[in-house]
Structure formats: C-alpha cells, structure tokens
Predict the 3D structure of the following.
Amino acid sequence: MQELYVGTVLAGLIFLSSVLSVELGISASIIEIALGVLAGNFLGVTALPWVTYIAGLGGILLTFLAGAEVDLDVMRAKFKESLLIGGVSFLAPFLGAMLICHYLLGWEWKAAQIAGVALSTTSLAVVYAVLVETGLTHTPVGKLIMAATFVTDFGTAAALALVLLEFNLNTLWFALISGAIILLVPRVAPRLFARYGDRVIEPEIKFLFLLLLILMYFAKLGMSHAILPAFVLGLVMSRIFQKNAALQRKLRVVGFAFITPIFFLNGGMKISLSLLWSGALLFVILLAVKQITKIVGVYPLAKRYIPNEAMYTTLLMSTGLTMGTLSSVAGLEAGFIDQLQFSVLVAVVVASAIVPTFIAQRFFHPHHVLRELQQPKKGAAALVEETVSEE
C-alpha cells in the first residue's frame, strides 16, 4: 500500500510541477525539488528502493543529455576563450568552497570536496533555457557561453568521479568498459539508428538506456560513479544528435516525462526543513562563496573576451542546478556529507539557479546583440526569425 501511495503522490507532483513551470515561467527542475521538500517533510513520502533506482538513472540520463548538448564546432572555434572562462568558472569556486568549508567551517576533507564540486557547477540546463528563450543561442556570445559551460561541467563531472573513486580490481573493468563504449558507440550507433530507427517501439532509445545502465552497473562494481563516462558518451554522440534532432527530442520526452523528475523530487525529499532552518547562516555563507568566487574568477576573462557582455556572461556562469544537485546526492549516498550539509548545499544550488539568472535578465541582458542581428545583413533577419520559430 505504501508503494502505491508513494507512486501516486510522486506522479501527482510531477504533473503539478509541469503546470506550475508553464504558469510561473520557472524551470520545472526547481519546482520539482521544492515539491520534493514538501513531500518528504509533510506528506510522508519516503525514498523506496524503486524511487532510488529511477532517481539514479535520472541523474545519469541528465548527465548524458548535458554532454549531448555541446556544439563541438563552437568548442573548436572558441577553444581558448571557452577553456579559460569555463576552466576558471570551475576551479575558482571549487577551490574556494573546499578550502572555506574545511578550514573555516571545519568540515571533513571529503565533505569539503563534495561542497567544492557541488558549488563549482554552471547549470547547462538553466543557461541553455535562458539562451533559447531570449533568442541568443545562435549569437556569438550565446555560443561562447554554452561552450564555456561545457568546460565547467566537464570539470565538475571529472572532479566528482575522482572524489567518489574507491579503487578495486573491478574499477579497472569499469574503466575499460567505459572506454570501449565511448570509442565504439559513435561508430556503431549511426548504422543501428539507420536500420532500426523511426519505429514505434523505439529501439534506439532502448539502446541508449541499455548503455547507461551498463555504465551504472560496472560503476557500482568498481566502487565508482558513472557520471564522467556518461557525460563523455553524450559528448562524443553530440554530432549524431545534431544530425538527428528527432531522436534527441524523443529521448528528452522519455526522460523528462517521468525519469528525471524522480531524480529532482528524490533530491528534494532528502532536504530537512528543520535542519535547513538551523543552518540558515551556513546557507548564506556558501551562497556568497559561490557567487563571489564565480564573479572574481570569471568576470576579468569575460571582460577581456566579451567586453560588452562580461557581466551577463559572468552571471549565467554563476548558475547551478542539475550537476550541483547530482553531486550533493552522490555525496550524501556515499556518506561523505550529513543531512544538514546536504540540505544546505542543495538549497544553495537551487538559489544559484534563480538569483543570478534574474539579475542577468533584468539588468544585463544584451538586447543590442539581437538588434544587430535584425539588421538586413546576409540573412541575419532570417536567422532571428528561425530562432524565434524554434522557440
């Protein structure tokens, strides 16, 4: 009976979060975390084994989709700029949060490392949504921000994998199998999709889920985590998705309809409001640490390479959501952080998805970039019309 109750409540919350997202114009992921807090603290919903399993798959699926969003051509064209901005965007808050948590707040090293990872992120989902909604995805500044965001998230995924790593013999098997999948799948997948794609039974979607579950299984055996190989697998398949937008859309539909919402709801269910209230000062400190280190690290580089949109770029690079939540959940499940630390970290991550975005859109949005595109030069107007139609 408890399983039916939990399933019914979660299904209702997933639907409610979608409605609220449309009506309020807020990311569904943020609403799902908030409703998860409500379910865990007031509705008696607990993380049953099937909830934990689906949430784990949802986290890996989100990581894979984040890698698949990367435009490799932009990465190549803007390699130096994206590497410097994205690298500092990861490194500055990672080191700052880790050192402050350990030396100033007295956290254990593993807990401080998890905090550094969780607060180092830039939310690819938030950045991508903002750029699409404002028509900046096809502009030079939008492409550079997306490329830099990938570099940051790659650093986060790699750091989390290293923090969670506990080497044994199966870890070698995990590394070998992950490497084989990453090398072979981009060559095999196009033929498989051409032969079995565009069918109502969706063999290509099932194939991708099989790959992610294989990574999860061997990561568990190897006492590691599938975050990094899933991210890299998405990256090496990004060109395939660019050529097959329908496949990418179907994978999003399958994932975002039920699987990834369970991940965010499950994360919210782990937040204790009473502990969060008692850690209000800690919340303020860590939110300030993330924003200050991001601004101090990113702004000088953004000012050099994107002088007219430096603050807008810096604020978008200061956001966090999916990878930050994923890192916090992984740290809690590994026993590296306690419930209070987890609750505060996730609250900081959610706040960082809202506050910088609002300020960037309200005060620093580069409207002139869109006006320049609307000038009748070499089909720029057609490009804007295409962007608007895609939204």
Observations:
- Confidence is low (pLDDT under 50) at residues 377-391.
- DSSP finds 20 helices and no strands in the chain.
